[in-house]
Amino acid sequence: MLNVLHVIVCFFLILVVLLQQGRGGGLGSSFGGGAQVFGGRGAGNFMTRLTAICAAIFMLTSMSLAYLSSAGDRELKQFETQQGK
User: Fold this and answer.
1) Are 58 and 9 within 8 A, CB to CB?
2) What's the average model confidence in pLDDT over 32-42?
């Protein structure tokens, strides 16, 4: 379940970053400027917040997956040391 959430957030983060309007116009202007619905500055603030939220969720899921993966390694190491006794 966490893997699926991580992949979904990853793709959504990529999409949000690509839709942001950078110095050169970005990919957001390629879609007819759909992000301008929120207003000139409002779109930038909204997209910036959305990017920060997605990045935070991505980092949390990354750390959770890394911890869960290392927990399996710890159990395996503990099992091997018990078998060696």
Assistant:
1) yes
2) 53
